[in-house]
Amino acid sequence: MWIDTDRAFQEFCQQAYTQTELAIDLEFQGEGRYTPLLCLVQLGLRDRCVAVDPFRVNLTPLAPLLTHPGIRKIVHAGGQDIVLLRRETEAIPVSVFDTQIAAAFLGYGEATGYAALAQRFARVSLSKRQQLTDWTRRPLLPEQIEYALNDVRYLFPVYDGLLEQLAQQGRTNWVLDACADAVAQAIRVRETGQEYLKIGKLGSLSRRELAVLRELCQWREATARSRNRPVGTILHDDVLRQIAYTLPRTESALRQMRGTNNLSRELVTEILETIQQALALPESEWPEPVTVREYDPTLDGLATLLGAIVRLRAGMLDMAANLLATRDDLLRFAGWVLRGRPAAEAGQLAVLQGWRRAVIGELLLDLVAGKSLLQIAPEAPGALRIIPPAPSAPADGQPDPGDTA
Asked: Which of 144, 253, 282, 361 minimizes the number of CB atoms within 10 Å of its CB?
């Protein structure tokens, strides 16, 4: 069903508010833009699916549905959708179930596509004929609308199948926690003034040069936003870094650099003004030097060993290893261990939080403390075997009441 009036949309939202599940998918166009353009909103109930035209409909009535904890929002790879929904409705979705995340917890792969899951759980083969549709055009063809609606129509059998398997394996709460983490990550506001830290190879820049780079990055971000262009089309990262390193003071000096020939005179003037403003900042406002992590054979070796344990545990659970811990997670954990495991820092370690602590964190802690052992076993998966802690004997030396002969 096609919805292009506020009244029809409000009626649908009133009906959806009486349900316990809502399937959501969005079509948007991000190419050549700073902010993606939302082109279509597909919403599904168990007995009804609608395609909503955001060019003509006010999406605000969707907000109470997104924030209702009793209505589970079902999406697939919904990170960007969450960002756009928040932008359009000013609501942060809660009770989100992402089928791609759920599939990763069940051994279907780290980034399983929707079509593969629909094939498995709904026994349908989704057409890709409309995959390159220009969703900005109106009117959309009936087959294009039907293609879009399929993205929510089959989310329900996929959701049902995954939920059943998660319940059988006792992993439902793991997935719900992981989905909540994914929502928080998607909507996390970028700290203004910290964009420069995403540009690599900063170890050779002085604090003064970093101040220039920071101001240039903020200028580029604001310029891209005002012109609705991708950040990289204003000026590439490597060019920004080189400008901060060489500090050109004139147009001719700036244009000597590769990647600046196509800059308009207006942008050149703004860049030179930004450099001058940054150079005038007092030293107290300069960023701290960027510390480049040097290779530490002890730290890296321990992180590598921990990685083998994570892969072993992930294999036992038939899960993607990166769900349990990334390389950065393991480097932080290894560093914490080498510093003597300070209790005040434990709350900053991802492997010791939420479901990850139960799944992998406690095991790592037992291994570090010597309670569990790691044994090389060529016949075992990964050629490693984890020997769990031996049960402790009762203090009086008598057999444990729970033991049976």
From this structure: 282
Mean pLDDT value across the chain:
92
Token pair recorded at residue 2 = 């096609």
Unique residue bearing structure tokens 């220009």: 134
29 within 8 A of 36, measured Cβ to Cβ: yes
Write the CB contacts of 395 (distance below 8 Å, at least 6 apart in sequence): none
3-state DSSP assignment of residue 25? strand
Residue 180, SS3 per DSSP: helix
DSSP 241-280: HHHHHH---SHHHHTTSTT-TT--HHHHHHHHHHHHHHHT
Whole-number pLDDT of residue 192 = 64
Give the CB-side neighbour count of residue 70, counting CA atoms within 13 A.
5
Tokens found for residue 387: 């020997």
Closest CA relative to residue 388, chosen from 356, 404, 365: 365
C-beta contacts of 236-239 below 8 A and 24+ residues apart = 237/198, 237/199, 237/200
Does residue 235 sit in helix, strand or coil? coil
Range scoring the smallest mean pLDDT among 26-30, 199-203, 360-364: 199-203
Q: Give the model confidence (pLDDT) of 12-37 as tens digits.
A: 999 999 999 999 999 999 889 999 99
Q: Is 333 exposed, middle or buried (0-12, 13-18, 19+ CB in 10 A)?
A: buried
